């Protein structure tokens, strides 16, 4: 079986790594709580979440820096939970690169190959190092010292030092956190094309949702040590399973509601304040149940007057923020409170004179928003 | 009121400059001049220009021999004892115990070296350790007034000076580098040899220099634990200036000691620089 993702096709069924009920406890703190996750061969998977969510712990258990307290980890079919880092077929790009300051660029890259037993021939090491440096476009920089390299270059050295070993999995621990925005975007593109050409499984840890959304085949959203949802970037954005995911990935208005009727895929709900709207339902909620409904700011529309047949909320504009290609409105509704609406620039023209203080109608097209499950 | 750059520099460097000029440079010049002179008729110094004193250095060869043997040996022994200790303190000990243990390393310094050396005289003397060994049937072993006694004394006295610089360099070592080495396939002992050791060489260099330079001029410990049998250049100098009152010869010996020290230290720094592939951004001292 294969499934298509935003970027390319990954053949399912060939797990390169697997968390099986893996937990990590530090004293009283449960840093990772019964993780169950299959990582497919060749995919680009991201662990996304705020600091302290357990994403780094998950990565460090894969690398072998932490031992699970319960459960286990399989890499390429072998149980490796107790195997030390230096005997695992994975390599890591560290957050602050952790390059060896007393070695040249080439010596840094050669380090992993030099550890091989039986020893690898010097000429073979030199060839592979040169090739790895070429891959990251640092072909000329081999004899340089680490401190002579810029942040972006050091990042590439760290990358070359890892990929030269041809690991089964490349682990990336917030590798772009220290780069400025422009360099980060460049590096993201390079990482992606590198992953496609090498065919190595990449596992990225990040707290930057844009980074995770734009690069990953699948994203694993983490919170409180648990996996909150796993899915393609589109699945997570369009069908967040719970409030935590809806809140963390992109922005969402989260509104209390009561289910009126529900069928496969759709539900009629009544928002607090009495407005009935039709929303997407990833599962069939119980009629009468109190639920939360999430709706993306860009899924809502604004108008001076209500449109026939479209449910609308009357609200007052309290803030307007100009972002160039789009405009963000913050409106106050007497019952629901603050509601965010994002309009493309041209939609603003349909609202002459609708500045702060204006009374507008928030239009809720059928199928916008969805019913959230429990965290 | 604004102070000009020049005035500020003079104020900053003035006190130290005067201190060094009056108490280091000037005396050194005096010693250098004296070393080409002669012994006065009633001792002291008589002006002359002769290399006779330098030609006569061989008469005090034993002092040089002892110094040049025991100072490096003492430095090496201190290094071999201090490194594992510093490593333990910087890497293995839990944070909350660290300060206490570091204080324990300095505690002996709170007592005068003179008193501690007296303690060693007793320990190494006939009624101390040798007596204990004899009781255990190890035969008649003499420790006091041997090179071994002097070695024990100097290592004991100077150990903290070796521990601290090494501790500092190990403590500031980025532990993530060791994770990186492990991740790249290096077992712990290899990452120690390839990462920890080279990166702590600046501390090793500083510690060795401190201990070695002080040992080259050591006087007290050979005096007390060597009992006049194992003496350093320092002891010979005291004898020449205060007993024999041959200031010219003493000066020649001093100048030679300084020269030997400069050469040894330079060679040692070069050696460390080579094996450590020393970085330009982190000076060794």
UniProtKB/TrEMBL annotation, chain A:
<keyword id="KW-1278">Translocase</keyword>
<dbReference type="InterPro" id="IPR003593">
    <property type="entry name" value="AAA+_ATPase"/>
</dbReference>
<dbReference type="InterPro" id="IPR027417">
    <property type="entry name" value="P-loop_NTPase"/>
</dbReference>
<dbReference type="InterPro" id="IPR003439">
    <property type="entry name" value="ABC_transporter-like_ATP-bd"/>
</dbReference>
<dbReference type="GO" id="GO:0015417">
    <property type="term" value="F:ABC-type polyamine transporter activity"/>
</dbReference>
<comment type="similarity">
    <text>Belongs to the ABC transporter superfamily. Spermidine/putrescine importer (TC 3.A.1.11.1) family.</text>
</comment>
<keyword id="KW-0547">Nucleotide-binding</keyword>
<comment type="subunit">
    <text>The complex is composed of two ATP-binding proteins (PotA), two transmembrane proteins (PotB and PotC) and a solute-binding protein (PotD).</text>
</comment>
<dbReference type="InterPro" id="IPR050093">
    <property type="entry name" value="ABC_SmlMolc_Importer"/>
</dbReference>
<keyword id="KW-0813">Transport</keyword>
<dbReference type="GO" id="GO:0005524">
    <property type="term" value="F:ATP binding"/>
</dbReference>
<dbReference type="InterPro" id="IPR008995">
    <property type="entry name" value="Mo/tungstate-bd_C_term_dom"/>
</dbReference>
<protein>
    <recommendedName>
        <fullName>Spermidine/putrescine import ATP-binding protein PotA</fullName>
        <ecNumber>7.6.2.11</ecNumber>
    </recommendedName>
</protein>
<dbReference type="InterPro" id="IPR013611">
    <property type="entry name" value="Transp-assoc_OB_typ2"/>
</dbReference>
<dbReference type="GO" id="GO:0015847">
    <property type="term" value="P:putrescine transport"/>
</dbReference>
<keyword id="KW-0067">ATP-binding</keyword>
<feature type="domain" description="ABC transporter">
    <location>
        <begin position="17"/>
        <end position="249"/>
    </location>
</feature>
<keyword id="KW-1003">Cell membrane</keyword>
<dbReference type="InterPro" id="IPR017871">
    <property type="entry name" value="ABC_transporter-like_CS"/>
</dbReference>
<dbReference type="Pfam" id="PF00005">
    <property type="entry name" value="ABC_tran"/>
</dbReference>
<dbReference type="GO" id="GO:0016887">
    <property type="term" value="F:ATP hydrolysis activity"/>
</dbReference>
<dbReference type="Pfam" id="PF08402">
    <property type="entry name" value="TOBE_2"/>
</dbReference>
Automatic annotation (TrEMBL), chain B:
<protein>
    <submittedName>
        <fullName>ABC-type spermidine/putrescine transport system permease subunit I</fullName>
    </submittedName>
</protein>
<dbReference type="GO" id="GO:0055085">
    <property type="term" value="P:transmembrane transport"/>
</dbReference>
<dbReference type="Pfam" id="PF00528">
    <property type="entry name" value="BPD_transp_1"/>
</dbReference>
<keyword id="KW-0472">Membrane</keyword>
<feature type="transmembrane region" description="Helical">
    <location>
        <begin position="12"/>
        <end position="36"/>
    </location>
</feature>
<keyword id="KW-0813">Transport</keyword>
<keyword id="KW-0812">Transmembrane</keyword>
<feature type="domain" description="ABC transmembrane type-1">
    <location>
        <begin position="64"/>
        <end position="268"/>
    </location>
</feature>
<keyword id="KW-1133">Transmembrane helix</keyword>
<feature type="transmembrane region" description="Helical">
    <location>
        <begin position="199"/>
        <end position="221"/>
    </location>
</feature>
<feature type="transmembrane region" description="Helical">
    <location>
        <begin position="247"/>
        <end position="269"/>
    </location>
</feature>
<dbReference type="GO" id="GO:0005886">
    <property type="term" value="C:plasma membrane"/>
</dbReference>
<feature type="transmembrane region" description="Helical">
    <location>
        <begin position="143"/>
        <end position="168"/>
    </location>
</feature>
<feature type="transmembrane region" description="Helical">
    <location>
        <begin position="101"/>
        <end position="123"/>
    </location>
</feature>
<dbReference type="InterPro" id="IPR000515">
    <property type="entry name" value="MetI-like"/>
</dbReference>
<comment type="similarity">
    <text>Belongs to the binding-protein-dependent transport system permease family. CysTW subfamily.</text>
</comment>
<feature type="transmembrane region" description="Helical">
    <location>
        <begin position="69"/>
        <end position="89"/>
    </location>
</feature>
<dbReference type="InterPro" id="IPR035906">
    <property type="entry name" value="MetI-like_sf"/>
</dbReference>
<keyword id="KW-1003">Cell membrane</keyword>
């Amino acid at each position: 079986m294969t499934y298509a993702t935003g970027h390319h096709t990954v053949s399912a069924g060939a797990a390169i790594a697997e968390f099986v009920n893996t937990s990590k406890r530090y004293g009283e703190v449960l840093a990772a709580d019964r993780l169950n996750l299959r990582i497919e061969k060749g995919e680009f998977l991201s662990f996304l979440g705020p600091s302290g969510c357990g994403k780094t712990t998950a990565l460090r258990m894969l690398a072998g820096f932490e031992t699970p307290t319960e459960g286990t980890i399989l890499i390429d079919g072998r149980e490796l939970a107790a195997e030390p880092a230096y005997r695992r077929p994975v390599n890591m790009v560290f957050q602050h690169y952790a390059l060896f300051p007393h070695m040249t660029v080439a010596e840094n890259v050669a380090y992993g190959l030099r550890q091989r037993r039986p020893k690898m021939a010097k000429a073979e090491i030199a060839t592979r190092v040169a090739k790895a440096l070429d891959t990251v476009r640092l072909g000329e920089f081999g004899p340089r010292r680490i401190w002579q390299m810029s942040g972006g270059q050091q990042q590439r050295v760290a990358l070359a030092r890892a990929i030269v070993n041809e690991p089964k999995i490349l682990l990336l621990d917030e590798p772009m956190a220290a780069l400025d925005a422009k360099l980060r975007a460049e590096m993201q593109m390079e990482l992606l094309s590198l992953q496609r050409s090498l065919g190595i499984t990449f596992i990225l840890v990040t707290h930057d949702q844009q980074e995770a959304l734009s690069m990953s085949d699948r994203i694993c959203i983490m919170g409180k040590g648990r996996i909150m949802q796993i899915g393609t970037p589109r699945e997570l954005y369009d069908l967040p399973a719970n409030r935590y995911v809806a809140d963390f990935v992109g922005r969402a208005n989260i509104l209390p509601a009561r289910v009126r009727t529900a069928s496969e895929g759709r539900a009629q709900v009544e928002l607090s304040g009495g407005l009935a709207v039709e929303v997407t339902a990833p599962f069939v909620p119980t009629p009468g149940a109190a639920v939360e409904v999430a709706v993306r700011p860009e899924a809502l529309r604004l108008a001076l007057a209500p449109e026939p047949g479209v449910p609308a909320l009357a609200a007052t504009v309290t803030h307007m923020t100009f972002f160039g290609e789009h405009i963000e409105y913050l409106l106050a509704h007497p019952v629901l409170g603050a509601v965010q609406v994002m309009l493309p620039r041209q939609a603003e023209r349909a609202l002459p004179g609708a500045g702060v203080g204006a009374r507008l109608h928030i239009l809720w097209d059928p199928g916008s928003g969805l019913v959230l499950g429990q965290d | 009121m604004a102070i000009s750059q020049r005035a500020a520099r003079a104020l900053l460097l003035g006190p130290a400059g005067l201190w060094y000029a009056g108490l280091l440079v000037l005396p050194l010049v005096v010693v250098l001049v004296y070393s080409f002179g002669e012994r006065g008729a009633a001792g002291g110094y008589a002006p002359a220009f002769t290399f006779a004193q330098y030609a006569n250095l061989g008469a005090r060869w034993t002092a040089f021999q002892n110094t040049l043997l025991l100072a490096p040996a003492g430095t090496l022994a201190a290094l071999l004892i201090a490194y594992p200790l510093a490593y333990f303190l910087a890497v293995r000990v839990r944070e909350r115990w660290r300060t206490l243990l570091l204080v324990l390393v300095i505690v002996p310094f709170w007592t005068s070296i003179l008193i501690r050396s007296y303690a060693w005289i007793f320990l190494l003397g006939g009624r101390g350790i040798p007596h204990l060994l004899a009781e255990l049937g190890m035969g008649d072993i003499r420790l006091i007034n041997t090179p071994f006694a002097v070695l024990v004394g100097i290592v004991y006295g100077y150990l903290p000076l070796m521990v601290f610089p090494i501790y500092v360099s190990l403590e500031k070592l980025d532990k993530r580098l060791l994770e990186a080495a492990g991740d790249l396939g290096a077992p712990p002992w290899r990452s120690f040899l390839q990462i920890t050791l080279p990166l702590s060489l600046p501390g090793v260099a500083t510690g060795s220099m401190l201990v070695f330079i002080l040992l080259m001029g050591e006087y007290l410990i050979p005096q007390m634990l060597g009992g006049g049998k194992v003496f350093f250049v320092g002891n010979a100098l005291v004898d020449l200036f205060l007993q024999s009152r041959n200031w010219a010869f003493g000066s020649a010996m001093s100048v030679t000691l300084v020269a030997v020290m400069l050469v040894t230290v330079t060679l040692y720094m070069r050696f460390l620089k080579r094996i450590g592939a020393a970085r330009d951004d982190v000076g060794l001292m």
